[in-house]
Amino acid sequence: MSFHNTKLMGFLTETVLVTHAPIVKNGCDCNIRCGDTVSAQELTDKEKKEHAWFLPYTLILGVNREHFDPARGKGGSAIWEFDVSKLPRKSGEKITNIQLKVIAFRIHAGLHTPSKSWQDAKAKGERKWGRVSLAVGEHEFEMLDDIILETRMEHGENIGFNQTRSFPEIQEWILKARQEGDGKLRVKLAVNSQVTWDVDQVRLEFIVVETKQVRQWVWMVLGAFLSSVIGTVMAYLILNGKQ
Question: How far apart are CA 184 and CA 84, in angstroms?
Fold first, then answer.
């Protein structure tokens, strides 16, 4: 599905840029979870009332159902698998942009750690972090970004960032997934101890496909020229046939 076209004109050819709809995975739709993680889908009605910050599709890394306390979290991770085999791949088509985005819709959500935990870690020379890694097929994960938490959140007292985190230009990973991974791209998010990551959605978006094609006027001129040539040849044959 595409929803926006842009044309860049040359003299004989034009470049068409088509933006495709994003590929979206909800947080709780991850394929694998390890360590301290809690999905909204596993909460009881009582827990949903007590922990109202969960949306129906939220997955939180770094807490568990025994305490829901980030300060007691021991770290956790989750993996989402994307099928990118259906993205455009015809001859002449090239993906020129695609980015990974991790979204938390709530204002006070995001990747964060309690201020005291951060201060204690800093005193020991340690850091609090969230990590993004990618893999194709059965290959090992490679780190895309190591996010060190160092600044206070805009909303709240925790150290970290709110809501959305983008990782641009991963189109080379899409090519690798097609060539080496049966069209499967795996995205892994992880946190270390006393860090939580509220994940409502993981998305592949701003998917821009470039196609180069001959401009319409060239085909029109070529068609007119061929028609003229064919007409001349037919006239010649007709005239010679009457002689």
Answer: 6
